[in-house]
Design goal:
Elements lengths: L7 E5 L3 H7 L4 H22 L3 E8 L7 H24 L2 E6 L7 H13 L6 E9 L1 H14 L7 H5 L12 E4 L18 E4 L9 H12 L12
Parallel strand pairs: 1-2, 1-5, 2-4, 3-4, 5-6
Length: 231
């Protein structure tokens, strides 16, 4: 039987700090190693035939972390945009960034927009980085948009158009690393019927074998969307 590849995979990349601590390193070293893992997973997603990949890079709650760590994460993201945009274009990967602009420097926001524009014509895979993102924030932002337009009632299908990335289909598979069983305010609207795969592996150690395990697990799931098979 051929393996079915989810069109959209979403990943909660968890465990960078604990990975670093387990090796006696500073937390930022875990984030750097996690960035290397992300680069591998992105290439592997293209190889598998995934059409949309969403990763949880920085949440609206992450501002509560130590200032030095937050600054390091912002710098890491900025350098990623500088260093990887040409590689993304070579792989025909479109980049979009989902989240609120609140608290993010104007310099970084400008770089994000420029990179999105640079890669806007790519179509093999859409790489959606959830950065300064919160699921509740996305929903309330959508509600505020429709209220400004004077709407007092919308259907679920209409509300979809008020989300950050209305053209990206809902994830079929959500992967969370490091063994945590939480949604952590991630894609609350979009994951209503996603399948959840939890692995104890820390994100920096997430490799091809782990990725294939997640997809094989997905292939063994029976997706019913609230219905039942009547025989």
């Amino acid at each position: 039987m051929d393996r079915k590849i989810p069109k959209h995979i979403a990943i909660i990349m968890d465990g960078n700090g604990r990975w670093a601590k387990s090796k006696g390193m500073a937390r930022i070293e875990g984030h750097k190693r996690g960035a290397d893992t992300l680069e591998f997973v992105l290439r592997q997603s293209v190889s598998f035939g995934v059409k949309h990949l969403t990763v949880y890079a920085f949440s609206t709650e992450n501002w509560k972390r130590p200032k030095a760590e937050v600054t390091a994460l912002m710098n890491l993201f900025s350098k990623y945009l500088d260093n990887k945009k040409d590689e993304l274009k070579e792989q025909d990967i479109r980049l979009v960034v989902s989240g609120t602009e609140e608290g993010v420097s104007k310099k970084l926001l400008k770089k994000i927009k420029e990179t999105e524009n640079y890669l806007s014509g790519c179509s093999t895979l859409t790489f959606n980085i959830a950065f300064n993102y919160g699921g509740r924030k996305e929903i309330t932002d959508g509600i505020n948009k429709l209220l400004k337009e004077g709407k007092t009632s919308v259907t679920e299908e209409e509300f979809q158009n008020y989300l950050y990335q209305p053209d990206i289909p809902d994830p079929e598979l959500v992967i969370r690393t490091s063994g945590e069983f939480r949604i952590s305010n991630f894609l609350l609207w979009e994951i209503a019927y996603s399948e959840f795969y939890i692995t104890n592996t820390y994100w920096p150690d997430f490799d091809k074998n782990e990725y294939e395990k997640a997809i094989d697990w997905f292939n063994n799931r029976e997706r019913r969307f609230g219905g039942v098979d009547v025989k």
